TrEMBL record:
The gene is grpE. One of its GO terms (molecular function) is protein-folding chaperone binding. SUPFAM superfamilies: Coiled-coil domain of nucleotide exchange factor GrpE, Head domain of nucleotide exchange factor GrpE. Residues 29-56 have a biased composition (Acidic residues). The keyword Lipid metabolism does not apply. This is Protein GrpE. Belongs to the GrpE family. GO terms for cellular component: cytoplasm. It is found in: Cytoplasm. The keyword Cytoplasm applies. GO terms for biological process: protein folding. It comes from Peptoniphilus lacrimalis 315-B.
Length: 200
């Protein structure tokens, strides 16, 4: 009876040992599978990280290109504005120079006209004065400076400077009856207003 029990015990121990060995083999197999899976997963992560890095570098490159494009566009706009401003200033300086020169010449023309009005003898000297005055007027016209037509026109304070008023049977009220000093326009703007007499 004891032998039977001992035999049974030995069998149980043997079975346990076999099962343990099988379990160890299964665990080793599972560990190998886990290891392979872990390696595959790690490799996959590395590939994804590489792709992400490539995308990030591409985005950085796109951002850099966009920034450079924006800078170029701003510089181009600044240059266009600078060129326009420079051209405008240049035109203003030219206009200012012409205006200053014209304002210096107009009194000379006035004096020529006064001397012509006072001259009774229309000799060669008179003809020479007329010729010089006409040349000065032509020089002004070449720079868009023209004489203002004032006599017989309605008084306009933007164009005329009234120095006297008088009652007139010939003209209605507020009409320029006489011009004491001619007015001039430059590019349709008043260079010098006309000094006039106005009817009441």
């Amino acid at each position: 009876m004891v032998d039977k029990n001992k035999k049974k015990e030995d069998e149980n121990i043997f079975d346990k040992n076999i099962k343990n060995e099988e379990n160890i083999k299964d665990e080793d197999y599972i560990n190998e599978e886990d290891k392979d899976f872990s390696e595959d997963l790690e490799e996959s992560f590395k590939e994804e990280e590489t792709e992400i890095e490539v995308e990030e570098e591409k985005e950085k490159g796109d951002d850099k290109l966009q920034n450079l494009t924006d800078k170029f566009m701003r510089l181009q706009a600044d240059f266009v504005n600078f060129r326009r401003r420079t051209e405008k200033e240049k035109a203003q300086y030219v206009d200012l120079g012409i205006t200053k020169l014209a304002n210096s010449i107009l009194p000379v023309i006035d004096n020529f006209e006064r001397s012509m009005d006072a001259q009774t003898d229309h000799d060669g000297f008179f003809e020479g004065i007329c010729l010089i005055k006409d040349q000065l007027i032509d020089a002004l016209k070449a720079n868009n400076i023209v004489e203002m037509d004032a006599k017989g026109k309605k008084f306009d304070p933007n164009f005329h400077h009234a120095v006297m008023t008088e009652k007139s049977d010939e003209y209605d009220e507020g009409i320029v009856t006489e011009v004491f000093q001619k007015g001039y326009l430059i590019n349709d703007k008043v260079l010098r207003p006309a000094m006039v007499k106005v009817s009441e």
